[in-house]
Amino acid sequence: MQESLLYIQRIRALYHTRAFSKSDLLIADYILENPACVASSTASSLAGATGTSPATVVRFCRKLGFSGLADMKMSMMFNYVDNGNAIMDLKQGDSVGEIKHKVINFTKVVLDQLNETLEEEALAQAAKMIAGANQVVIIGEGGSGTICRVAYDVFLKLAIPCQFVSDAFFHAMVISMMEKDDVLLIIANSGRPINSVQNAQQAKENGLKTIGIVGPANSPLAKYLDIEIRTSLFNSDYFSDLSAARTCELTTISILHSIIALACEDEQLERGRKIAQSMERKRLPIK
């Protein structure tokens, strides 16, 4: 079984979210049934085949992370073919070397899409809010919870007061004790975990500032967020969508770290250096 083209991956990932309208679903169904149609279609012909409008087709392409239908067509060549090898063509019988090559290329595609998806304004606002917070409380669960732990480590090294809470019951307790100048950072790739949505709702009711790092647009979590940083969603039979999600979340945290670090005053940077030095005492010297 061959893996699908990049735009098919994106359609599958967003299909069961609230990102697609009824018209979008008509287009999605048509493309999923006729994957090769994109190569020869125009916005008008695709609109005619799906009973929608050319403008709807363009908006649909943009929801997938492309600038339009032409850009989506280009992705067939740029993202699907690499030096004559189909990088999304992972199939049974591939050698270990072929699998290594294709998985690494898939990761490159993931990062390329992340580069297109991340909104610079959202990143800038989030970095400013985190840097100016009295305290940052970082919460998440499942796979995203592992990135919460990394975020805690990263921001603490910038001398930003923060804590990472992993237990769902402790989430509610900590949120109830947060002050107005505190920031709640939620990492939830699907944007749909019940605990995460409830936590964000509680935070908003308490007048707290909220930031979310999520995969899709229009997730249930989104309406309770002051700042929504959207990454990407992937759905694949052979490539690890979990690894893709963690890659996107980790890279986003790294970007926020760099934005904040470059804006830090000397005094804060010095505090960060002292934190790093204290951690070195917990490591054996290199011989």
Task: Name some characteristics of this structure.
single chain, 287 residues, alpha/beta, five-stranded parallel beta sheet, two-stranded antiparallel sheet, 13 helices, 57% helix, globular
Structural notes for this entry:
This protein has 287 residues and is α/β, with parallel strands linked by helices. Helix 2 packs across helix 4, helix 7 (96-117) crosses helix 12 and helix 10 packs parallel to helix 11. The N and C termini lie far apart (50 Å). A hairpin with a 2-residue loop joins strand 1 (81-82) and strand 2 (85-86). The protein is 57% helix and 10% strand. The radius of gyration is 21 Å and the shape is globular. It contains 13 helices and seven strands.
The helicity comes to 55-70%
Average residue pLDDT: 86
> Which stretches are poorly predicted, pLDDT < 50 over at least 5 residues?
78-85
Strand content: 5-15%
Coarse structural class? alpha/beta
**Which strand order do you get reading across the main beta sheet?**
4-3-5-6-7
Q: What's the helix-strand series?
A: HHHHHHEEHHEHEHEHEEHH
What general form does the structure show? Answer: globular
Alpha-carbon distance between the termini? 50 Å
Number of helices: 13
Beta strands, count:
7
Radius of gyration of CA atoms, rounded to a whole number? 21 Å
Oligomer: single chain
How many strands, which pairing sense, and closed or not: the largest β-sheet? 5 strands, parallel
